[in-house]
Design goal:
The complex is a heterodimer.
Chain A: H1 2-21, H2 23-57, E1 62-67, H3 73-85, E2 89-95, H4 97-106, H5 111-115, E3 125-130, H6 138-146, E4 151-156, H7 159-200, H8 202-210, H9 215-258, H10 270-295
Antiparallel strand pairs in A: 1-3, 1-4, 2-3
Chain B: E1 2-12, E2 18-28, E3 32-36, H1 43-49, E4 58-63, E5 66-67, H2 76-81, E6 83-86, H3 98-108, H4 113-127, H5 142-154, E7 160-164, H6 172-187, E8 191-195, H7 199-205, E9 208-213, E10 216-217
Parallel strand pairs in B: 3-8, 3-9, 6-7, 7-8
Antiparallel strand pairs in B: 1-2, 1-4, 4-5, 9-10
The chains are: A alpha+beta, B alpha/beta.
Chain lengths: 300, 219
Amino acid sequence: MTAWLRQHRAGLIGTLSRLLRSPLATGLNVLVIGTALALPLGAYVTLSYLQQLARASVVDPEISVFLDLDAGSADVDRISTELKQSSEIRSFRFVPRDKAFADLRRNESLGEVVASLSQNPLPDAFIVTLHRDAAESAATLAKHLKALPKVAHVQYDAAWAKRMRGLIDLGRAATVVLGVLLGLALVAVIFNTIRLQILTQREEIEVSRLVGATESFIRRPFLYLGALLGLGGGLMALALIGTIGLYLAQKVAAVVSLYSLGADFVFFTPEDAIAVVVFASVLGLAGAWLSVSRHLHSTP
Amino acid sequence: MASISFSNVTKRYPGGHEALHDINLVIESGEMVFFTGHSGAGKSTLLKLIPAIERPSLGTVLVNGQNVGRMRPAAVPFLRRSIGVVFQDQRLLNDRNVFDNVMLPLAAAGHPPRDAAKRVRAALAKVGLLERERAFPMTLSGGEQQRLCIARAVVGRPSILIADEPTASLDTDYAERIIEIFRDFNQVGVTVLISTHDRGLVARYAPRTIMLREGEVIE
């Protein structure tokens, strides 16, 4: 057991020192892998940013309830009592038809049209604001309100929220595809790097075999190399996205304050960062494993 | 106890060249044996069969009771740890210093580093290279390189020591010093097999000599 641990430690240290002995090649490799990972990571960060933005800026779902033109104050009272009883409704306000007409008249671009009207064509209306999480049941509620006597029309505009959600879903799917493709690219890059490294160390591999090294002893440094390159690439991707984030921070801050998002916006959580690094290391290991299985047998 | 035995061993390379034909040999534990013959007589092939660098096409090669011709690949490294080999083409790693070259077999076998370092220095002291442990193989003379190969072969304390043409590129004085080193190992019980085409050397030491010609033994 201790011999096994010792060999692993020796393999790891040997691989690290080999990497550090050629810093330029190592740096370029890590940069390539880091860039490949930074693209899906950047897309992921952008999406989660948009999602937070959407959540904050999508105003609470609203339903407009328009009454019949002949609805009297008794009807208004009855409907407002009804609205008060619904648990999904956060608040509502009553817009009398006279006030709505006055508002319309104040609108300069419509002034002439409105002036030509002989009487007020607008009905009384309720603007109902739902709880934020009641968006799903808004349609049902709208139907219910529509059925009330003296209600002429109920308008619920969910299109914008739906469109936004659709876009984010699409973006997420695209990110997954991008991530898978670039993950494959990462495996390919590591595969080839390890292949070249095996060619470079061919002599050493042969001699090690001749003096009694086991296959796992020979494979180990290459597997470590793959995992370390993946790890370095993951850290590089985080650094790239972090740097770009800092660069864009002011613009982001402007947008954030515009939508009153507050300071709680984060690019990625520590869990996200750890997941990226672990994922990159595992991909690196996988690429190295494939390469070692493919290329080590070809040496005698 | 027989250390190594060959029974009806034939080695045919892909392409049909027959390097060894129906070899029968027994080498007792603790013997020192010279293999002689012209280049291409099959000396190298015969020696390569012992640590399973090559496998026989026909027949059986037994080393310490194990049939090495039929050994599982996973068992071969452990066989090789009990056999020290000085290769004809030396096989030194030029990007590692003397110390690290000798360390390789012990590192591969997973020896604790401190104990391994002691053994490396003991092996280097034995061949007279202790003060060159930080040097790189390219900076050594031919004789020093050969001694380095011997140090790497013996550092794992093998029971069998094989040297393929260890004196080929050395002058006579130096060749004798190299053979002396092998004799010292033989005297502490190591089975030593040396191939050479230097008849003068063989004549001076007059150990057991096996002569090969065109892949056959003519003792």
